[in-house]
Amino acid sequence: MTTPQPVLDRLEFGLDGARRASELILTHYRADHLAVERKRDSSPVTEADRGAEQLLRARILQAFPHDGVLGEEFGETPGTSGFRWILDPVDGTKSFIHGVPLFGTLIGLELHGDPVMGICRLPALDEVVYAAAGGPAYQQTGLQPARCARVSAVRRLADATFCFTTVQGFERIRRADLFATMVARAGLVRGWGDCYGHLLVATGQADIMIDPLMNVWDIAALIPILEAAGGACVDWQGRRRVDGGNGISVNAALKDEVLALVNGGL
Predict the structure, then answer these.
(1) What is the pTM of this model?
(2) What are the pLDDT digits (tens) for 18-51?
(3) With contact defined as beta carbons under 8 Å apart, do 232 and 250 qualify?
(4) Structural domains of the chain, count
(5) Which CATH number belongs to the domain containing residue 40 in this structure?
(6) Lesser CB count within 10 Å: N end or C end of the chain?
(7) Same structural domain for residues 13 and 119?
(8) What is d(CA 16, CA 117) in angstroms, rounded to the nearest whole number?
(9) What confidence tens digit (pLDDT) does each residue in 82-131 have?
């Protein structure tokens, strides 16, 4: 399978947009007077979130006026081309607010509902991981040449590194039992969460990332990246969909075992 040229064009455009959004975000990072507001769901939002999404939306509207856009902060603008951009300007806003560098800008792209491209840029680390359907996944740090990103070959849960965002997320959906099981069975457990944990799986630095609560904009960019890296990013039922409400990133060797554990088996 080769990547269609319209997708490649949007990948190049998206990578440049992610860089520009990073520059804006970093002007607010660890700022002395960062204003933090609360949305209706009590999640935090800052001027960095809103400003980065406005920047990306304006650029998309100018370059691809017939594409749709869905963003965390400003909702959905329908399109007619079959392409839909899905934006999370600052995934890991709580980390951003606390001055922790493990937050990212997520740019996903669907074609007729199918996730076909994903970009995750970590502004404070100057790293980006990206992929388009039909091609490999790439990881780039600073000005270094991009290199292929691949999931690990770990085959035993006892040897695996399991990542998560918060314990409270499992408790909120009454699945503290799953978290306890993963802690007991995994070889190493670390709270490297949000998009950063998923990218660790895509680059082979971790093996499993489980999120009990995910929105469309949290997962859309990750599905093409994990698939291109040889792994999977699916919901808890094993489906590659953006609206499942939860998600798992995992290498190919552990996928079936992890899904069985999530669904009460083993």
Answers:
(1) 0.97
(2) 999 999 999 999 998 899 999 888 899 999 999 9
(3) yes
(4) 2
(5) 3.30.540.10
(6) N
(7) yes
(8) 14
(9) 999 999 999 999 999 999 999 999 999 999 999 999 999 999 999 999 99
